[in-house]
């Protein structure tokens, strides 16, 4: 019998399956002591189980690896196992190249630090042999222990021009990408590297990670950029740009000759993410057009077609897709349903594919008298006493409600308050100052419960994440921000009918991407996903997936062109605005294709290949006609993705009809101007009417909406704290006699900042100003139209002074940059000067700053201790 046949036979053997059911039950009960077992757990035959695991550990099949991992992890975690059995379990993990879990076991004193000395000679010899294997060697002579996926990934990076890697969450992709970035800078000291991520939160996360690499000397003589500011880049150092696709697009449009040695696209499956996916593909395409020797690296979580991303590779470039279903952490999927006739008793079932094991039941301490309480009450009852409890909510309002429920549960049971914890107290103080004294987070934090959503101020979100990682918080309630790649590990995720976007059922791939946050490699042995009311079709529009599925990548551009007739009709019908609003990816796709036509590479775009010859000819003809009729500089098409030349032309024609004084009246001014709100209101009204922005309806209601946006965006650019924006909106609502709860006003203001101030307004205002400046130059009236080249950044970042921008470029959050600038007079300091100011500041000068701001300053200074600037 071959070893492969033996493993297959073993997994089907009745006795082994019975033992494994007991292992699963023991592992789950160990994690959730509140569960009352359904059956008594038989004694485990650990000698037999570990022997089987040692056979399965060498397999290349993921399902066999998962069984070996579960046996080893559970053996390590249970108190009943002996030191010898735990040592054998650690050897199995080592056999699977899972050295980070072995390290975790030693850190938690589950196995001795000198593990190899306690092993019998044959095992010790193998253990020592493996210590020199499953490693990668970097240029600086250091070797790093890695898993099998990382070995394959590193080899591909070392030998290929384009690489597309796919593996489940917790496979170690980010760690390896950081190593490779350092390797590139060691090989070429003056390299230019772009690291593209989908969110600002990930910019912060990777900036901090690479900043730590700088502080520790892993990176040397490298400048980290997180903002697309103008300026010359020092020639004697390396440059690392950590950007979203929007920020990279701004940089490329400003620096026409900029090229990169390495382009990394993290969360690369986002090329299929609607209009943002189109922009991501466009900036990648532009980078490759400028330099065909740029190494391009894609990283995606567990996709089935990683090679798809390399379809635009230049001729002669070596490509390598890397995909391996490596298993590093054991995960449990639990279904929790109410016992018939007993609403306070809920049954807990372990589910894997078609297999189910009844683990036991949990008793609710409170009645779940409404649908909104079912998730929070079950989560409270089942919580892991060791922390790491996370609830997934379908939006900010739901997140606040669940946090209030759980917080009140702790208060009702008189669990000791955490408001005297220094870190909790510092965060509460900052929340009161920067958001609102009555913001619900102030109260929930006192009981060790927080909520977290994307529109919250970065410094507050970051500290919440840190408190959760450090196990100070008892519960955290999150929204879809967690799916977007924020590296926030937890022990258990509770969910009930999860959605993503406007009430849409969460795709299966996103479900597993979210589930991957439970049990992070090197930090936990197990992770658990708890699905509540899984059989209720009115809660789960689609049943929870019980098998991990690979995501299929398809670029948004290709998806749009597959419906080419709809797109052609959209053009022929003169771009109906209601269609453009429903399908924003149409306008982004068209501006991308227009740029390609102007560059003579329309037919070379991979997505164009889905068109029939007739469709290709008609579409290209329409695009060429649009270009021939475009009276503005052609670079405007690239500068303004998603804004049609058709609309830009109409706006220019409107400007030509206006008198100079009228043009001045709609021209934006510096935000500190006394008439700023009036000027921006005029500009917004003009954009709303003539540039297809569709920010507000026509009429009195629309005028009020534009007035609110003008007040909010001007205060935002002035660097006013969020608390002031909320206070003003609250007073406006009171004057209008609008009966809105404070929580709704706070969420509304945060959403407006995120959706309008940071995205929609700068997008359209940038085009508006470019066309206005062009017209001013053509008509000789430039002297009366003020140019504000950084206005789009002022809006995205919420500051308008060079010194504040420089502080944020250093790595400070907006909150900290505003607080620090209050102590400074010079408003035009560059990045290096602000670093020097912070480094040399008298401690007495900073003493009254909020504690979290001072901590952030300290982290930034530590990072730049090793940085050239």
Number of domains: 6
CATH architecture of the largest domain: 3-Layer(aba) Sandwich
Shape: globular
Total number of helices: 36
The overall pLDDT average reads 92
Q: How large a portion of the residues is in β-strands, by DSSP E? A: 5-15%
Largest sheet: 9 strands, mixed
Low-pLDDT sequence parts: none
Lateral strand order in the biggest sheet = 1-13-12-11-20-17-14-16-15
Please bin the fraction of helical residues: 40-55%
CATH topology title of the largest domain: Rossmann fold
Q: Compute the separation of the termini in Å.
A: 63 Å
CATH uppermost class of the largest domain: Alpha Beta
How many distinct beta strands?
A: 20
Using the CA coordinates, give the radius of gyration: 29 Å
Output the structural class.
alpha/beta
CATH superfamily of the largest domain: P-loop containing nucleotide triphosphate hydrolases
General description of the model:
With about 850 residues, the protein is of the alpha/beta class. The protein folds into six domains: about 5-120, no CATH class; about 135-325, 3-Layer(aba) Sandwich (Rossmann fold); about 330-530, 3-Layer(aba) Sandwich (Rossmann fold); about 555-640; about 655-795, no CATH class; about 800-865, no CATH class. Helix content is about 50%, strand content about 10%. It has 36 helices and 20 strands. The strands form four sheets. Strands 1-13-12-11-20-17-14-16-15 form a nine-stranded mixed beta sheet, sandwiched between helices. β2 and β3 (about 145) form a beta hairpin. α13 crosses α14, α27 packs across α28 and α33 packs across α36 (about 850-865). The radius of gyration is 29 Å and the shape is globular. The model has no long low-confidence stretch (mean pLDDT about 90).
């Amino acid at each position: 019998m071959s070893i492969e046949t033996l493993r297959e036979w073993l997994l089907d053997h009745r006795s082994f399956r019975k033992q494994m059911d007991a292992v699963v039950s023991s592992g789950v009960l160990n994690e959730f002591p509140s569960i009352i077992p359904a059956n008594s757990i038989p004694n485990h035959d650990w000698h037999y189980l570990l022997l089987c695991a040692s056979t399965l550990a060498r397999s290349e099949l993921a399902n066999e690896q998962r069984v070996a991992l579960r046996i080893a992890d559970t053996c390590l975690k249970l108190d009943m196992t002996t030191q010898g059995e735990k040592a054998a379990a650690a050897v199995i993990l080592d056999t699977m190249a899972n050295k980070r879990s072995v390290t975790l076991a030693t850190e938690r004193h589950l196995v001795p630090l000198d593990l190899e000395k306690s092993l019998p000679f044959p095992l010790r010899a193998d253990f020592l042999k493996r210590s020199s294997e499953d490693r990668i060697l970097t240029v600086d002579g250091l070797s790093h222990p890695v898993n099998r996926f990382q070995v394959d990934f590193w080899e591909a990076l070392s030998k290929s021009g384009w690489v597309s890697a796919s593996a489940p969450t917790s496979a170690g992709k980010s760690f390896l990408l950081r190593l490779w970035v350092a390797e590139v800078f060691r090989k070429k000291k003056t390299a230019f590297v772009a690291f593209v991520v989908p969110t600002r939160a990930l910019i912060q996360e990777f900036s901090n990670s690479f900043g730590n690499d700088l502080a520790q000397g892993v990176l040397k003589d490298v400048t980290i950029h997180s903002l697309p500011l103008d300026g010359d880049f020092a020639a004697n150092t390396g440059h690392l740009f950590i950007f979203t696709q929007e920020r990279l697009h701004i940089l490329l449009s400003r620096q026409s000759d900029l090229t990169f040695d390495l382009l990394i696209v993290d969360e690369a499956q986002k090329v299929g993410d609607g209009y943002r996916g189109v922009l991501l593909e466009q900036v990648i395409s532009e980078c490759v057009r400028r330099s065909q020797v740029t190494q391009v690296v894609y990283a995606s979580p567990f996709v089935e077609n990683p090679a798809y991303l390399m379809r635009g590779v230049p001729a002669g470039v070596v490509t390598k897709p890397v995909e391996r279903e490596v298993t590093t952490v054991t995960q449990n999927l639990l279904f929790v349903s109410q016992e018939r006739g007993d609403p306070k008793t809920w049954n807990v079932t372990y589910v894997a594919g078609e297999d189910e094991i009844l683990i036991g039941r949990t008793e609710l301490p409170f009645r779940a008298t409404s649908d909104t309480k079912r998730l929070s009450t079950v989560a409270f009852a089942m919580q892991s006493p060791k922390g790491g409890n996370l609830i997934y909510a379908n939006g900010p309002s739901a997140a606040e409600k669940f946090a209030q429920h759980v917080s009140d549960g702790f208060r009702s049971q008189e669990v000791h308050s955490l408001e005297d914890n220094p870190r909790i107290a510092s965060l509460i103080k900052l929340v009161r100052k920067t958001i609102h004294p009555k913001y619900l987070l102030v109260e929930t934090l006192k009981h060790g419960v927080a909520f977290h959503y994307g529109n919250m101020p970065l410094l507050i979100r970051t500290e919440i994440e840190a408190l959760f990682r450090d196990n100070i918080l008892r519960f955290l309630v999150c929204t879809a921000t967690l799916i977007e790649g924020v590296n926030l590990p937890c022990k258990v995720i509770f969910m009930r009918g999860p959605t993503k976007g406007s009430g849409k059922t969460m795709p299966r791939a996103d479900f597993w991407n979210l589930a991957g946050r439970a049990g992070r490699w090197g930090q936990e042995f197990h992770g658990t996903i708890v699905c509540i009311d899984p059989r209720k079709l009115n809660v789960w529009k689609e049943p929870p997936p019980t098998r991990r599925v690979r995501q299929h990548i398809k670029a948004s551009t290709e998806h749009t062109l597959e419906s080419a007739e709809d797109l052609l009709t959209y053009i022929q019908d003169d771009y109906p605005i209601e269609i453009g609003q429903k399908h924003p990816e149409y306008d982004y796709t068209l501006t991308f294709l227009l740029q390609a036509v102007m560059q003579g590479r329309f037919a070379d775009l991979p997505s164009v290949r889905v068109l029939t010859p007739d469709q290709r000819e008609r579409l290209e003809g329409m695009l060429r006609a649009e270009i021939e009729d475009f009276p503005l500089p052609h670079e405007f098409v690239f500068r303004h993705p998603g804004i049609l030349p058709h609309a830009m032309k109409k706006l220019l024609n409107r400007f030509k009809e206006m008198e100079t004084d009228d043009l001045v009246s709609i021209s934006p001014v510096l935000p500190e101007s006394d008439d700023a709100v009036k000027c921006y209101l005029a500009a917004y009204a003009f954009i709303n009417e003539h540039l297809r922005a569709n920010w507000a309806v026509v009429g009195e209601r629309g005028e009020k909406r534009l007035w609110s946006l003008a007040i909010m965006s001007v205060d935002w650019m002035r660097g006013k704290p969020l608390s002031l924006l909320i206070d003003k909106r609250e007073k406006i609502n009171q004057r209008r006699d609008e009966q809105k709860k404070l929580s709704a006003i706070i969420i509304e203001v945060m959403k407006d900042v995120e959706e309008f101030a940071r995205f929609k307004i700068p997008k359209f205002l940038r085009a508006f100003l470019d066309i206005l400046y062009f017209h001013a130059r053509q008509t000789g009236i430039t002297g009366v139209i003020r140019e504000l080249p950084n206005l789009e950044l002022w809006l995205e970042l919420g500051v308008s002074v060079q010194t504040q921008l420089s502080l944020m470029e250093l790595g400070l959050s907006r909150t900290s940059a505003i607080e620090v600038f209050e102590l400074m007079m010079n408003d035009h300091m560059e990045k290096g000067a602000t670093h020097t100011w912070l480094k040399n500041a008298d401690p007495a000068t900073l003493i009254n700053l909020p504690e979290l701001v001072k901590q952030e300053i300290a982290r930034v200074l530590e990072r730049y201790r090793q940085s050239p600037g």
